[in-house]
Design brief:
It is a single chain. By secondary structure, the chain is an alpha+beta fold. It is built from three helices and nine strands. The protein is globular and about 50 Å long. The N and C termini lie far apart (53 Å).
């Protein structure tokens, strides 16, 4: 009923791309809770060490299982997005390339380097603190902002209508 080309363009939260191109050594982020007792859960970062047609091996980069090897199987995934007017299933590895991540996804993690794009004031209350507190050393924070702004200031946006007195 729908062409394959259209189905391959659908991108929903928690759903990997239809075509996933990986290489050994590339950083990935796990998109599903596969085995939390062994550190393989949503948001876990790792590096691909081996690939097969039905499973990939990653070396975990975060948490108490840092340095351990883990297997991520290919799964049948159904998107939970209610904007799609039909049901479909995508059989894919539940990982995305992880060269960047959102501030929300970085919560609870420690990283060696942080780069911030401050060209637009898109922060909600507390996100700037979360972003800069993820880095292990303050000299490893880099930020970019608009060149025509002489002062390097970003707004802390607070919506007073949502604050409960």
């Amino acid at each position: 009923m729908y062409p394959v080309e259209y189905l391959n363009t659908i991108q929903c939260s928690g759903l990997p791309l239809a075509k996933l191109t990986l290489k050994i050594g590339c950083p990935v982020m796990v998109l599903r809770n596969i085995d939390p007792s062994h550190g393989i859960c949503n948001g876990t970062r790792g590096v691909v060490t081996r690939m097969q047609s039905r499973v990939i091996e990653i070396r975990l980069l975060t948490g108490e299982f840092m340095g351990k090897k883990a297997f991520v199987p290919r799964l049948s995934l159904n998107p939970q997005d209610t904007q799609i007017p039909f049901e479909f299933c995508r059989r894919q590895f539940p990982v995305n390339l992880c060269f960047t991540m959102t501030i929300n996804k970085s919560q609870g993690q420690s990283v060696a380097n942080v780069g911030l794009n401050l060209q637009h004031s898109v922060f909600t209350h507390g996100q700037l603190y979360v972003a800069i507190s993820r880095v292990t050393a303050s000299q490893n924070i880099k930020a970019i902002w608009e060149e025509n702004k002489p002062d390097s200031v970003t707004k802390n946006i607070v919506y007073p209508e949502v604050i409960i007195d």
